[in-house]
Amino acid sequence: MALSTPLSQMSVALPIGIDGSSGSMIKVQSVSFTEKSCGPLLRLDTVSRKLSLKKRSTVCMSLQQQARRSKVSVTPLELEDPKETPLNLYRPKEPYTAKIVSVDRIVGPQAPGETCHIVIDHDGKVPYWEGQSYGVIPPGENPKKPGAPHNVRLYSIASTRYGDSFDGKTASLCVRRAQYYDPETGKEDPSKAGVCSNFLCNAKPGDKVQITGPSGKVMLLPEEDPKATHIMIATGTGVAPFRGYLRRMFMEDVPTFKFDGLAWLFLGVANSDSLLYDEEFSSYLKDYPENFRYDKALSREEKNKKGGKMYVQDKIEEYSDEIFKLLDDGAHIYFCGLKGMMPGIQDTLKRVAEERGESWEQKLSQLRKNKQWHVEVY
Ligand code: FAD
C-alpha cells in the first residue's frame, strides 16, 4: 500500500513500531497523506502531535513498509451483501447533503491545469460499488433556468465502496478544475470557469455538498472470476474508477474477494507532474508483480516510435499482440476519460486487427456481446 499517496483521513489499524519494527498494532486515527512527499506533509492527527518531525518520518517509513506486507481490514462487510447494485438512491430533486472531508491538489507544479482528490463524507448513507459515479449539484442558480438549481454533474468515484477511510462512510472523487482560456489572448477567463469542478476544487473541509446517485453499471468490476484479466485504459481523471478497482484488488482485505488475476493499467497524462496516484500504483507493482502491470504515456515528455507525442494508443500499439491475445482469452477491457481519447484508440485497434488479418468490427461486436468491452468517456 502506498501510504504516501493522496489518501485522506484514514482510520486504520496497522502494525507499526516507532523504530520501524513490526511491533504491536496501534489504531491510527485520521491519517492524512499527500502525493508528493511523506515527512513534512504527514498529519497523524491523534497520534503524532506528540512526536517530533524526525519521529514522524520514521512512523511514515514504518507505515509504508508494514502496510505493503499486509492488506487493510475494511468495514462494514455488509457492503458485500446486496445482490443488487446500489442505483439512484438519491435523485436530483432530493439529493443527499454530504460533507467535504478534504480537498488535495494531487498534481505537481509543472502539470498543465489542476486535479484534486476530494473526499466526501456520506456517513454510509449513499453506498456505491467500484466503477460507479456520484452526481454533484453545485450551489447556486442555473443560469439557463432562473430560480432552479444547477444541473447535476457526474464524477466517477475513485475509491472502493469502503472509501479511503476503509469504513464505508466516504467516497473520493478525482476532479480536474475546468478553466477557460480565451482562444485569442490565451488568457484565463474566470467568468467562464467550470461551475462544479471549481466548486469542488475550492471546497473546504466541513463544506456541504449535494450529491445524487450512485449511478452507472457499465464500469462495474466483474468479480465472478478472481483470475480474470482486466485491461484498464485511462486518460487523466479517467483513472478514477481504476483506482477503486486496484485498491479493492491490492490494498483491501475483503474476505469474499481475493484477486489473483492480472490487472493492467495504461495511464495517459501530459507529463510526469500530471501523473495521478502514481505512488499508490507503483507500490502495487512492487508488491504484486505477477498480478499488476502499469504503463504510462506522457504526451509532452515522451515520443512515440514515429517521433510524435506519446499517447495512450501508442502504448496500446506497443503491446498489441499481448492485448489481443488476452482479449481472445476473455480479458475485460475498460476505457475511461475524455471522449477525445476513443477515436485514436479505435483507429489503433482497427489497424492492429487488420495487420493480424482480423476484422475489427467483428472483434468489437464479439467483445461487446461477451460483455468484455466497457467504455465511460465524457
Ligand atoms: P461547466 O460549468 O459545466 O462548463 C463546462 C465547460 O465549458 C468548462 O470547461 C468551462 O470552462 C466551459 N465554459 C463555461 N462557460 C463558457 C462559455 N461562455 N463559452 C465557452 N466555454 C465555456 N470530471 C472529472 O473531473 N472527473 C471525473 O471523474 C469525471 N467523471 C465523469 C463521469 C461521467 C460519467 C461524466 C458524464 C462526466 C464526468 N466528468 C468528470 C465531467 C464532469 O461531469 C463535468 O462535466 C466537468 O467537471 C465540468 O463541469 P463544470 O461544472 O466544472 O463545468
Defining traits:
378 residues, alpha/beta, six-stranded antiparallel beta sheet, five-stranded parallel beta sheet, 16 strands, 23% helix, binds flavin-adenine dinucleotide
Please tell me the overall pLDDT: 86
Helix content estimate: 10-25%
Q: Can you tell me the residue ranges where pLDDT is under 50 for at least 5 consecutive residues?
A: 1-67
Structural class: alpha/beta
**Distance between the ends:** 30 Å
> Largest sheet at a glance?
6 strands, antiparallel
Task: Please write the string of helix (H) and strand (E) elements.
Answer: EEEHEEEEEEHEEHEEHEHHEHHE
| Shape label | globular
Subcellular location: Plastid, Chloroplast
Keywords: Electron transport, FAD, Flavoprotein, NADP, Oxidoreductase, Transport
Family: Belongs to the ferredoxin--NADP reductase type 1 family.
Pfam families: NAD_binding_1
Concise structural overview:
The protein is of the alpha/beta class and 378 residues long. Helices cover 23% and strands 25% of the residues. It is globular and about 60 Å long.
Structure description:
Keywords: Electron transport, FAD, Flavoprotein, NADP, Oxidoreductase, Transport. Belongs to the ferredoxin--NADP reductase type 1 family. Its main location: plastid. It catalyses: 2 reduced [2Fe-2S]-[ferredoxin] + NADP(+) + H(+) = 2 oxidized [2Fe-2S]-[ferredoxin] + NADPH. The chain has 378 residues and is α/β, with parallel strands linked by helices. It is built from 8 helices and 16 strands. A 6-stranded antiparallel sheet has the order 8-7-10-5-6-9, covered by helices on one side. α5 (312-318) runs parallel beside α7 (341-355). The longest helix has 17 residues, at 53-69. It is globular, with a radius of gyration of 21 Å. The relative contact order is 0.13. Mean pLDDT is 86; it is low at 1-67. It binds flavin-adenine dinucleotide.
